[in-house]
Structures are given as C-alpha cells and as structure tokens.
Design brief:
The chain is an alpha+beta fold. About 25% of the residues lie in helices and about 45% in strands.
C-alpha cells in the first residue's frame, strides 16, 4: 500500500468516525422537537423527519366521552390552520408546563423514545391538568436516524 492510499483511507475513516460521533441521539432529536415552539424552530427540525413520517394525535377527555383521534403525514402539513381546531381551542391557555421526562428503549432494532410532560391549563375559566405523552419511533435513513412516526396523546382525564 502506498503512503497516499494509506492517508486517503485514514482520512476517510476519520471522517466517518467524526460524522458518527456528531449524529444526534434519538433522545436529543425528540427533545429538540418538543422544544420547538414557533415555525422557525420547527423548520430547523425538518431534516429529523422521514419523508413519509406520520403524526397521530389522540385527545382523551374521560367522563364517558369518546377519544378524538386523527393522523396526518408530516410532509402534507401546510401553514393553513384548521378553522375547527382554532374554534375548539378558543379560550385555552397553558399556565405551566413541566420539562418532559424522556425515556428510550429499543425493540427489534427500532428505537422508541417517549416523553411525558405535565401541563396546567385554563380553558374558558376552568383550570385543570393534562398529561401529554409523545411517542417517537425512529429508523435509519440516508446514513442517519430520523423520526418515522410520532403519536401524541393529550390526556385530560
């Protein structure tokens, strides 16, 4: 092996190690997604999502009322707001939010990250508590790890 070849191989291996070391852990990606509070910070996380990623939302009300469940493909999201959702959330404000408690596990080589956040809210004069659970599923994609799906449960029971 010539010295030039050995140097090129060494540089290539070092580059791979640097790129691997800089890759975000799924827990870090999930925390960054949960911290994004505005459009700009959400756009900064766009490359952490698989192109066909889905988001499923579950609203649990209790008191015998059926859960609301809906899902959508992340790539189909537009800036348009759903007028029904805006109307339904009139008078809703969060008054406190805990830091998310994040746990991670692997199952059949698939990485799962769960974040649980406690939220105090006021909804049209009623003060209450809600538990938000975000369940991320990650998979390898183009040399990195991306979010394949997210299920968010808002539990008002």
């Amino acid at each position: 092996m010539k010295p030039v070849q050995a140097t090129l191989i060494g540089v290539a291996l070092a580059s791979v190690l640097v790129l691997t070391a800089q890759a975000d852990a799924p827990e870090d990606i999930a925390a960054r997604i949960l911290q994004a509070q505005d459009e700009q910070s959400l756009l900064a996380t766009w490359d952490n999502w698989h192109p066909d990623a889905t988001h499923r939302v579950i609203l649990k009300y209790g008191m015998g009322q059926a859960d609301d469940v809906f899902s959508y493909r992340i790539g189909d999201v537009t800036n348009a707001e759903d007028p029904e959702l805006v109307k339904a959330l009139e008078g809703y404000t969060e008054t406190a939010r805990s830091a998310p408690q994040i746990t991670a596990r692997s199952e059949d080589d698939v990485r799962h990250v769960t974040a649980v956040t406690q939220v105090d809210y006021d909804w049209q004069g009623y003060a209450g508590k809600m538990r938000q659970t975000d369940e991320f599923v990650f998979e390898p994609f183009q040399g990195g790890t991306v979010i394949r799906s997210l299920t968010t449960t808002y539990d008002y029971r």
